[in-house]
Specification:
The protein is mainly alpha-helical. It has one domain. It contains 16 helices and no strands. Helix 2 crosses helix 10 and helix 13 packs antiparallel against helix 14.
């Protein structure tokens, strides 16, 4: 197999298109800063959390593959690393959120809370929910993710250039040793960035729910990228068995997302505590009720029944279409987590689209630029022949 034939040398038009969309999104955000400043930061946080959850889902998938010495994901490793490669850009893209902390998080100004009970509850959490502590933890999360993701990517690319490089032990040791750290930082980022938007409400299932959505969306994006790359002639090694493996994982984690969603809802609803049910009450009335129903249908009902089909998982165009659906549905999911707190009567705003274009366009261009000049598969990995020959019924 020739490594030269697998190098990614294109993508220039995609990069230009992504940068154009990002620029359009930035212009929209600048206009929104004057016309609707209170809607700007919630919209940006949704787009940011959406992108981060997918990048972290890909990082965890990559680490699990290394830790387990899994065979079939090897042929998809470079695409997974491409998604993970957006983390340095995402670390910088957190900076705009710093300017909106006081608009996003009530705990930054507890004295402004009119409800005395809520004010006392927030003040009781001040040792954890304060700006210096929040910023320190956020910096730690971002450093952990970027360092681990970059190290795994660099070692993987090292063997492309030097077939004799013995990186397997390092890749496996780092992945197995730091998976708990990535899981914990992922969880606490969910607590800090999203759940603390409503500091009087809490759920220990919340970060698991956020992880489940991000992980299945990462698998969905990987499926779409695999199909697009193969259709462009860049991944001829991919077989129907690889698509079937991706389809099975998509089905499993669609079910897992639904389980975490139902488990959280069921426990809170059956307990019927006033300080807990408010989260669901504000999402089950007015214009948010149809949005909640649409989320359940989009994120679970449609992909679940589609992915039950054995034939669909062996038909790459159809599987990619379902994966694209899941990828889009995850945005609705993150939007549903954040926006009701700020817009109880108007679920959607044009700034949502502007923020998504800005963050998504920037991450896409950055990841594509980092992929250029590198092989589309880890050409010298000793497990690659086993990955290409993978079969599953």
């Amino acid at each position: 197999m020739s490594a030269e034939n697998t190098f990614f040398r294109g993508g220039a038009r995609l990069v230009r298109g992504s940068l154009a969309l990002a620029a359009l999104g930035v212009v929209g955000l600048v206009i929104g800063a004057f016309l609707a400043p209170r809607q700007l930061f919630p919209a940006y946080l949704v787009a940011y959390a959406y992108a981060v959850s997918i990048a972290l889902g890909a990082l965890i998938f990559l680490m699990i593959g290394h830790a387990m010495n899994a065979g079939w994901p090897v042929v998809l490793r470079r695409l997974t690393e491409t998604i993970v490669g957006s983390l340095p850009a995402l670390a910088l893209l957190f900076i705009p959120i710093l300017f909106g902390l006081h608009l996003l998080y009530p705990w930054t100004r507890p004295e402004a809370l009119s409800d005395e009970v809520a004010r006392h509850a927030v003040l009781a959490k001040h040792a954890y929910l304060n700006v210096p502590s929040f910023l320190s933890r956020t910096a730690a999360y971002l450093v952990v993710w970027v360092v681990i993701g970059e190290r795994l990517r660099r070692w993987s690319l090292e063997r492309d250039a030097d077939p004799s490089a013995n990186v397997d032990r390092r890749l496996r040791a780092l992945s197995a040793g730091t998976l708990p750290l990535v899981a914990l930082t992922f969880s606490f980022a969910g607590f800090d960035w999203l759940m603390s938007l409503t500091p009087t409400w809490f759920s220990t299932m919340y970060p698991v729910y956020w992880f489940a959505g991000g992980f299945v969306a990462a698998l969905a994006l990987l499926t779409v990228l695999t199909f697009a790359a193969q259709r462009a002639g860049l991944l001829p090694e991919i077989t129907l068995f690889h698509y079937y493996a991706l389809g099975r994982m998509l089905l499993a984690f669609v079910i897992f997302w639904a389980y975490t969603a139902y488990f959280q809802f069921f426990l809170i609803w059956i307990a019927n505590r006033p300080d807990e049910v408010t989260f669901y009450i504000e999402r089950a009335r007015g214009p948010w009720y149809p949005a909640t129903v649409a989320l359940v249908v989009a994120q679970f009902v449609v992909p679940f029944f589609a992915l039950l089909s054995y034939r669909l998982k062996h038909r790459p165009p159809l599987l990619a279409a379902v994966a694209a659906w899941i990828f889009a549905a995850h945005y609705l999911d993150v939007h549903w987590l954040v926006i009701p707190t700020f817009r109880p009567l108007t679920p959607y705003h044009w700034l949502d689209a502007a923020a998504l274009l800005a963050v998504g366009g920037a991450c896409t261009a950055f990841s594509l630029l980092r992929l250029r000049g590198h092989a589309m598969i880890p050409v010298h990995d000793p497990a690659l022949p086993r990955a290409i020959a993978y079969e599953s019924k």
